[in-house]
Amino acid sequence: MLVIKLGGSAGLDYEAFLDDLARVEEPTVFIHGGNAEFDRVSKQLGIEPRHVTSQNGQSSRFTDRETLDVMLMVYCGKINKQLVEGLQRRGVNAVGISAIDGRIATGRRKPAIRVLEDGKPKMLRGDYAGSIEDVDTTLLTLLVGAGYLPVLTPPALGREGEAINVDGDKLATEIAVALGADQLLVFSNTPGLLADVRDENSLVTSISLANMAEAGAMAQGRMKKKVGAAQDAIERGVGRVIFADARVERPISRALEGAGTTIIA
Amino acid sequence: MLVIKLGGSAGLDYEAFLDDLARVEEPTVFIHGGNAEFDRVSKQLGIEPRHVTSQNGQSSRFTDRETLDVMLMVYCGKINKQLVEGLQRRGVNAVGISAIDGRIATGRRKPAIRVLEDGKPKMLRGDYAGSIEDVDTTLLTLLVGAGYLPVLTPPALGREGEAINVDGDKLATEIAVALGADQLLVFSNTPGLLADVRDENSLVTSISLANMAEAGAMAQGRMKKKVGAAQDAIERGVGRVIFADARVERPISRALEGAGTTIIA
């Protein structure tokens, strides 16, 4: 089983990606994000995206109920269904779902978060975000077994049946672990992990658990979360994780041929 | 098998509806619309909804690609997932999908339509709307068989893999026919078919195919389409169709107990 995650940053080549995805023969679960479009549509609706920094320095999006509804529109509506359209156009019988459908991923909502604003600690309430605690692969296995390609997106489901914003890379990790995937491919707008974030030629081609700490120290911004999620995936049995570029032709084939950063045990 | 359609007009009591839906024991496919919210979000995004009248007097929404993307956001995103959340909160393991997923409903897009604007005939191009020609129940049957409640919404899939706006009542009819449903329940913001559209006490409690022409003549606006779709459903083998009110407590139980307008052969 292959788990493929496509990020949601700007500048990705969706057409090339779907062309290549349509050629994959191995049973696959396809997971996507939607961050850039989320920001764009939020602003269009007059809701300024609110990014907050927690006390341990982690940046995240504050998701009040209004923002969560925009998330449903962008991730589960526009992006998910446009990807399904693109796959159907290529003859792939895709089924677009979110992790709340069939209780695929459930977790705990953290309604209040401690953040730093202008250097001052502050408690923000009304957040619809949380972390995944359980994965139920029944629906995904049912779909893959019947020959469909599941196209999966956040949010996940809170303990009280409410949607919660969860990190897309962590969702991909949890799904890959729960399915016992051989490989988890994580695509974004970078060639992989870079030794120098300003230099795309400084690609780190391979990381093992032994030099994971070093890799984590090298990683900047969102890549830090990705490295953590990849380590977690490998430690919990996923064969290998590949970080690769979604801005190129044949991105999946290239990743499987060795492009990008490969993480192994 | 029960097929339940919930309209998308304003003023419906979603909480009461979901409370009642959670009590249904018969295998069910749940279909929803989203018209009022579609208009609301379109306007919020600065896209004025464009309703056009065809030469034979039928009113419809002109759906250019930008409008179609809003439809994906509202129907497949916000409304579909809020309904899934509401059902999950009540312990029902719902799975929200659109008719493009798994190629549930496919049809022909009519890219150009002849309309009357200010009494003058005009050809409008770039419409993403069409009519359903084929239904594949494989995915719905798979989900229902595994104990999930499918929550289904337009759009459907055009011949070239593009999403097309289709009428929700017609989608419900096609699904009920293809599944050989015993009953199709159609809920909206009216007690059923009214002899006098201004008088909610003038409910027509029962129609048979024999007096369908009379009922069709009585029906105004959207109800005309509903009566046509119901006739079609009955003629093609659905046991009975019920038009009922979604603004009341226990709407589904009441409809099954005889409230609303029952259409039989």
Q: What would you say this structure looks like, in words?
A:
The first copy, chain A, is an alpha/beta fold. In chain A, 34% of the residues lie in helices and 28% in strands. In chain A, a hairpin with a 4-residue loop joins strand 3 and strand 4 (59-61). In chain A, 51% of the residues are buried. The interface between A and B is large, with 43 and 43 residues. Chains A, B: One of its GO terms (biological process) is L-arginine biosynthetic process. Chains A, B: Catalyzes the phosphorylation of LysW-gamma-alpha-aminoadipate.
What's the short version?
The structure is a homodimer of 265-residue chains. With 265 residues, the first copy, chain A, is an alpha/beta fold.
Task: Spell out the blueprint of helices and strands.
Two copies of one chain form a homodimer.
Chain A: E1 2-6, H1 14-21, E2 28-32, H2 35-44, E3 51-54, E4 59-61, H3 65-89, E5 94-98, E6 105-109, E7 112-117, E8 120-125, E9 130-135, H4 138-145, E10 149-153, E11 156-158, E12 163-164, H5 168-179, E13 183-188, E14 206-208, H6 212-218, H7 222-235, E15 240-245, H8 251-256, E16 261-264
Parallel strand pairs in A: 1-2, 1-13, 2-10, 5-10, 6-11, 13-15, 14-16
Antiparallel strand pairs in A: 3-4, 3-7, 6-9, 7-8, 11-12, 15-16
Helix pairs in contact in A: 2-3, 5-7, 6-7
Binding site for substrate (chains A, B): 61, 165
Subcellular location (chains A, B): Cytoplasm
Catalytic activity (chains A, B): [amino-group carrier protein]-C-terminal-N-(1,4-dicarboxybutan-1-yl)-L-glutamine + ATP = [amino-group carrier protein]-C-terminal-N-(1-carboxy-5-phosphooxy-5-oxopentan-1-yl)-L-glutamine + ADP
